[in-house]
Design a protein that fits this description.
single chain, 6 strands, alpha+beta
């Protein structure tokens, strides 16, 4: 299960963003991931919920995942194909000279959080 390693890296990157933007707490992390990575969303979320308790300011964070289909392009015939299996062969001409044009992504798309807020008593 590589999801644990991915979530650990995700938190390292998110922590850098949190510090750079001077955020106190993070409420949401949106991740875009391609099907090429074969990530199981339920396992990713489980690791996220376990690990978020280890990082100050992430304890209440939620994870939102967007999965991108795996799409290849064939330079031989020009056909673009959505794959359901990681077999990188053009179904039109049989070429193995294909390029991945979508589905290899893995990044933090956005984060939501807040900075220190002054609380006024009334």
């Amino acid at each position: 299960m590589h999801e644990g390693a991915i979530v650990s890296s995700l938190f390292q990157i998110a922590l850098e963003i949190k510090e750079k933007e001077k955020l106190k707490n993070i409420s949401l992390i949106k991740v875009t991931m391609g099907k090429f990575h074969q990530i199981v969303p339920e396992v990713m979320e489980m690791h996220f919920n376990i690990m978020k308790k280890e990082y100050k300011g992430f304890e209440d964070a939620e994870l939102e995942m967007e999965e991108k289909d795996l799409i290849i392009s064939c330079p031989n015939c020009g056909k673009k194909t959505k794959l359901t299996e990681p077999l990188f062969i053009c179904p039109e001409c049989g070429s193995i000279e294909t390029d991945i044009i979508q589905g290899n992504e893995l990044y933090i798309a956005s984060m939501e959080g807040y900075r220190d807020q002054e609380i006024k008593e009334t």
